[in-house]
Predict the structure.
Amino acid sequence: MTVRLKRAYEPPARGDVRRILIDRLWPRGCPRNSLRIDAWPRELAPSDAFRRWFAHDPRRWQELRRPHQTELRVPEIRELLQRIAARARRRPVTLVYAATDKDRNNVVVMAGVLERLVRFIRAGKSA
């Protein structure tokens, strides 16, 4: 599986085949055409309530992970994730985010969920 995580403020690279913005809001100061975004499924980002509560506070990171993983289990969301995971098995996918903290953000949570989905797909199981 090839899932790359990249900040929106880093320039797109040649290897960024499919770029998906995983944020509820568009990154500040980034013109829409500069990011080369192929998809922006806002529903994959944490809900607005969790986003505001988390406020990028590292002390709240563990508390954000569990509710966000629960939100990602909603059938419609799960279907989107399964499509991304299936694509990531074949070709690279770049998940784009705006957060400053590269280790504690919603895309890190989503990458973990995608890795598990790819393992299920490879094993021929239903996720």
Summary: Strands lie at 3-7, 18-21, 93-97. The longest strand covers residues 3-7. The chain has a mean pLDDT of 86.
